[in-house]
Amino acid sequence: MRAKITYLVTAAVLALYFVLAGGRGVALIRIGTPLTVSFGVAVLILPVIGIWFLWKNTQFVSKANRLAEELEAEGGLPEDELERDRYGRILRDSADEVFARRKAETEDAPGDWRSWFRLAIAYHDARDTPRARKAMQRAIALHDKKPVRV
């Protein structure tokens, strides 16, 4: 729940920034000189890119949450079997051990979105965010029966 609140607050702050930056861009364009118009257009491009990025990221999070809910309903979410230090951080050796099992599970069933979902969690626990995201994207594509890029 805390992660959802953080995400929503961050998205709201970004949306406010996009509105303010967009307003400045429009104000620069209204001045009408070639220099201010070019700056105004440049300033407007940033919020457009930001809105696109925020939209794609929100779609990704929504789809991943939908998969988590479905897997939870099936009783297929992985147990938290990771060892932690006294501060609550995951121990690297423990994360590597779980990751090795999840990777083997995924290699045995490469077309199963559930194994890719669990692998994404293992990547995340091993602090490999880019690969965690790619594994989750693959899980989403397999779940939605879309073509998967290798």
User: What is the CA-CA span between the terminal residues?
Assistant: 33 Å
**Mean of all residue-level pLDDT scores:** 91
Main pleated-sheet profile: none
Reading the helices and strands in chain order gives: HHHHH
| Helix and strand composition category | mainly alpha
Any idea what the shape is? elongated
Describe the structure in your own words.
The chain has about 150 residues and is mostly helical. Helix content is about 75%, strand content about 0%. It has five helices and no strands. The protein has helices at about 1-30, 35-75, 90-110, 115-125, 130-145. α1 packs antiparallel against α2 (about 35-75), α2 packs across α5 and α4 packs antiparallel against α5.
Q: What does this entry show, briefly?
A:
By secondary structure, the chain is mainly alpha-helical. Helix content is 77%, strand content 0%. The mean pLDDT is 91.
